[in-house]
Amino acid sequence: MRNTDQSSSLFWLVVGIGIAISSLKYGFGTFHEPGPGFITFFAGAILTFLSLALFFSSFRDRVDRGGLRNLWAGLEFGKVLYVILLLVAYTLMLKSIGFLISTFVLLFLLFRVKGSYRLRTILLMSFLVTTGSYLIFEIWLKAQLPKGILERIF
Amino acid sequence: MDIINHIFFGFGVAFQPDNLLFCFIGVLIGTLVGVLPGLGPVAAISLLLPATFRAPPVGSIIMLSGIYYGAMYGGSTTSILVNIPGEAASVVTCFDGYQMARKGRAGPALGIAAFGSFIAGTLGVVGLAFMAPPLAAMALKFGPPEYFSLMVLGLTVLTFLAGGSMLKSLMMACFGVVIGNIGLDLVTARPRFTFGLDVLLDGVGLVPVVMGLFGISEVLLNVEEKLSEREIFKTEFKGLLPNLQDWKESIWPILRGSGLGFFLGILPGGGAVISSFVSYGVEKKLSKHPEEFGKGAIAGVAGPESANNSATAGAFIPLLTLGLPSNAVMAILLGALMIYNMPPGPRLITSHPNLFWGVITSMYIGNVMLLILNLPLIGLWVKILKIPYPILFPLILLFCLIGAYSLNTNPIEIGLMLIFGVLGYLMKKFKYDGAPLVLAMVLGPLMDNSLRQSLLMSGGSGMIFFTRPICLVILGAVTLILLLPVLPLISRIRKTVEKTEGN
What number is the ipTM of this complex? Predict the structure, then answer.
């Protein structure tokens, strides 16, 4: 891909076509009595049309701004991926392991992503933030955070 | 006069101790998120929204509004001291505010920003109190076709004013309409785009989407940046008060900025951001010393800071009178009012006068609180600025995680937030604006409803939008706005054709 608009417009083109086709399945209805897919069909169709417009107009852009790789040039993309994976793992484990343990582990790992602090400092910070947020959100605001395995122990 | 009675009634509501406390918490959190780069008012309000479900509605809205205009105050502090705008509406303040700070005049810069914001916020509130009731009375005459046209106009103006490519903003608006219509269709009770997931039957919540698009994505962008040390001035903040000469140079920019901001704030889409840029441009044009702009002209701080504050007051007008949000923050407030069973619209002023007048007057009180809070506490805000990002970003992430989970104690809400977080991250990378998506998502179901009602009214004829005079005017404006950016394109194409023919 010559520039980023071309790749992103192709993505939205597929999304737009997908929306329009599924809307027809949900039922377009008639103009007299619009069905559930009426407005989403138009939204999908316009999205398709606009993506095509963006795709073709991006060819007019003569300046070669480089491909997708340039978007991440000189940046630490690995860290972004790592943070996303940590958050996904947290989401999956939250219910079973419980708020206190999973949050402590998450914070411990997150504090190390960009910083270079001593192990003891990180452990202390993770502990303080976990208990602090537990006090604010669970005890004060009653957010009903999951207890997880601690519930079975106590 | 009626309006004076109403304002007194409003003060009665706003001065109740509970509401004063809510107002104080709101402006305090607002200033805090305004100071912290990477956490804006949009993310902060959606974060606190679940916590307000158990609080009284009027107090909650007072607090959420406080966060909004409080953030405008706080944003200026980081712009002036570290050249990092706390949020988008303070970008302009960097130009001259930071230069003033470098010349050792950080105090007067912060001072005039606070006083200007105070004057502008006050004028904005007065404007809101006078303009909203007659507008609401007019809006009562609107039917579904008028509402549908208005929403189309709102989205079009937003995509026109939003930064970057209008084409991309329109695409995001279309996508937002679809996201907003996920879930059970209210007429036929058939699920749409739920992918067989029961949680999606109720639709995609606004909070996870907004926290993902504006909170998580921002953190991800910052995580990949290589860290650089922030330079903070070690000036003593003794002389915060601007001197007489400063006032002379600032008073007109403040008043002009207030007017500009208020009217631009009514328009959908980034009113605060745009009005600050417009005000800067106007002041530079009108100034006797335009060459000083960018080198520390106090008018370049006073005008834009006033404009972005009165714009927040203006932004409330379409929400409170028409029930149509004009930016992402207003969209969240719309969601909140729906949850409290107080649907905003032309009837809100008469059906819930305590909410309407209470919130408006609380903004006035909030402005006083901000003035008291900001000037002596600047030292504290500077300390907060010094929290290193490696420690700050896990905290922001944790708040987002807890906020999403506590919506209805379901990890799936976190999952949704993460999906929109990654989407938002990629959107920023590929230069797509998130605001049209959020606004269209809120307007989506309303548009679906009013479009279907209009077509039922007309017996299936789309002509209903062209035979009613108000609709015709509104849709005419839509066409005009859509054509504006195309016109230079047409001329450019013509030029290319001429060139090729000439060759």
Answer: 0.92
